[in-house]
């Protein structure tokens, strides 16, 4: 896609004229004002200040609606991962001008981001036919068609895959001999130790790879452990003990190391909860996930992992984790991760008073903690229902519920939060899932807290990262923020599906 909203990917496509050549600003002052607002929005977009760009495009639309402003706002929403809003704006642009090629392109991008490739393919086919000499358009149409065929093939064999557990897959593997020249970390009698974890962190810092023998063993042991856990895990934090909650990491391994540097390594006296989205986008997702899985195996009762919306097959295919695993190991290992992720718990309850989930609350009233305990999570996330909403929903400042800006889940207001807490006798909720400028945000009268732990997300958002600490006898959250850490010059999304990178 183009680097700014006003640029074109197709030589044959030109931005739609807003004011006819014979119309002057004096004759159409509203259009002139809207054009000025749109141009200012484009400048903010170039600076990656997408929220301000959206505000200016919105003002331009309110002043004098035009399909170009809707398409530009769609692109800005896309960059903030508000794919539902991006779809709505692209639809509106197409409704205003059915031949506006760029709007189809924007809609296709949002549909692909949500894994809806068949619908995206129809839009890209329209663009490709309109722009037969545009290589970019033809390439994206071809790639999307390949993905549609790939998904159809994988669905055809999915039953066969689901019948295999990771343990069975490990037994089917002929583990390679550990070469004499391998000097990296080694499991002791097949088990993770503190020495192994300390060695692994140093090994990864130097951009080395864990031997596949040990990587497979960690996956096998993780599946066995996670199968024993419920969908809602209860955590008891002793009175004076510190407990740390981290949000999205998204493959930013060197920022994960920084958390451990400033807050201490996990231990029985320094427990952690990582609240989903460990992988994708960042190009050190393999290092992140084996670090987190290793600590979970080392301290199963003091280190906790929740599933995020990116611990799923579609997201991993699109946003880089699958490509990274295949590049560093094999497709077989990528398949194993898919099966292990299905067993990750969906939410955690701290001292019976604080509920932690990746996304948010629900589209119906009177959801109980027992309802969450009863979720059968061993599957790919559905597009609706409690599991979907735990992984995808977001808070918003207005009362009630509205459709999700992402196109999946819902947005819920302070009254929804208050009612849920009262119904379940809880103090507040912690969730992640959204980039925040300060790394965290407190909403809904202090009852809904967002924590996001990937600073300068994707090397472009300029946000701080944050984590939360609390004590068993004082559940008041305390926030620690930090800037991003230097990392090797491998760009984010380096392993992502070509249409998304």
Quick one: CATH superfamily of the largest domain? Metallo-dependent phosphatases
Tell me which CATH architecture of the largest domain applies here.
4-Layer Sandwich
Number of helices: 19
Query: How far apart, in Å, are the first and last alpha carbons?
Result: 10 Å
Structural class computed from helices and strand pairing: alpha/beta
The low-pLDDT segments are 6-22
Helix percentage range: 40-55%
Count of discrete domains:
2
What is the number of beta strands?
Answer: 14
Rounded mean pLDDT score: 91
In the CATH hierarchy, what is the class of the largest domain? Alpha Beta
Shape assignment = globular
Strand content: 5-15%
Outline the structure in words.
The chain is of the alpha/beta class. It has 2 domains: 29-157, Tetratricopeptide repeat domain (Serine Threonine Protein Phosphatase 5, Tetratricopeptide repeat), CATH 1.25.40; 188-500, Metallo-dependent phosphatases (Purple Acid Phosphatase, chain A, domain 2, 4-Layer Sandwich). It has 19 helices and 14 strands. It has helices at residues 29-46, 50-63, 67-79, 83-96, 101-113, 117-130, 135-156, 158-162, 166-172, 194-205, 212-226, 253-263, 285-298, 313-319, 321-328, 331-341, 369-373, 386-392, 414-424; strands at 232-235, 242-246, 272-274, 303-305, 347-350, 354-357, 394-395, 401-403, 410-412, 428-431, 440-443, 448-451, 465-471, 474-482. A 6-stranded mixed β-sheet has the order 1-5-6-10-12-11. β11 and β12 form a beta hairpin. α6 (117-130) packs antiparallel against α7. The longest helix has 22 residues, at 135-156. The protein is globular. The N and C termini lie close together (10 Å).
